[in-house]
Amino acid sequence: MADGHLNKCKSCAKKDVQKRYDDPNNRKKITDYEKKRNKRPERKLNRLKYNRKRRLNNPGKIKARNAVNNAIRDGRLIKEPCEVCGNIKSEGHHPDHRSPLKVIWLCLKHHREHHGQKVTER
Fold first, then answer.
1. pLDDT (0 to 100) of residue 79
2. pTM score above 0.90
3. Nearest to 6 by CA among 20, 18, 17
């Protein structure tokens, strides 16, 4: 609008944006836009700051992830299929980061469901 305001509330505007992002007809256009946007210097700097802060706030997570990756590399831990669906593309989920080599193997879809995140189709 000319006055800089929308003719809808914030929650309605968010719903409209989410609907546009979820629309399969817009997927390619949005993906291309996001790839271009993520290459901007200010976005790279913000991502770097975010990752540093995340690592400082969750040192146990980082250590557990590194321990699993090193154990797989060294052959001390064998990557297994998803425990729910049997998909061979699985990732380790740590129920407790204090026991880094005790992992549950889940595919991306079931790992996200386990954490209550939205599952997107690829």
1. 94
2. no
3. 17
